[in-house]
Amino acid sequence: MSTKPLVVLVGPPAAGKSRVAKRLGRIFDVAVVDTDTVVSARWGPIPEIFETQGEQFFREKERVAVEEALRASGVVSLGGGAVLNPDTRRDLDEHRVALITIDAESVAGRLDNDKRPLLKGGLDSWKELVASRQEFYAAVANREFDASHRTVDSLTEDIASWIREDAEL
User: Fold this and answer.
1) Are residues 104 and 126 in contact, defined by beta-carbon separation less than 8 angstroms?
2) I need a surface site. Which of 31, 34, 86, 106 has the fewest CB within 10 A?
3) pLDDT digits (tens, 9 = 90+) for 54-66
4) Res 86 pLDDT > 50
5) Domain 7-162: homologous superfamily in CATH
6) Are 108 and 14 in contact (CB under 8 A)?
7) What is the C-alpha separation between 151 and 91, in angstroms, rounded?
8) Where are the domains of the chain?
């Protein structure tokens, strides 16, 4: 019997995936894997990786983290760009995937350009990035949850309810 995550969270940078993942982990009493955290722990801070090794190196290491995470149980939060990899998109076909979206107005205060190397241009960069990835997010998601104008607790409870229903827990 193969092990797989209870749910995989995808979505744009700063949508709240990491925070929601931690709360889902507490609700279901399961482990949480955040692939950006895994990459940072093994290969260094993401901004530094981008600066010294480049985006391609980061994406290769991200793919390693994603492959490992998708073989584990619990809750998995993927970095915003993980869906760019066609192998990752194929792998996600076998999983329960929640897409967390957020509108530009709501995300504006969350953008920390020092932590997010692809968002040095601020909100305009974020909008372009999300537009370029939207079809990939939609293609892998089983269900979409909008984080705009909501508390993290409310969003998390909606996702938890869906998981319970879908997994018949």
Assistant:
1) yes
2) 86
3) 999 999 999 999 9
4) yes
5) P-loop containing nucleotide triphosphate hydrolases (3.40.50.300)
6) no
7) 30
8) 7-162
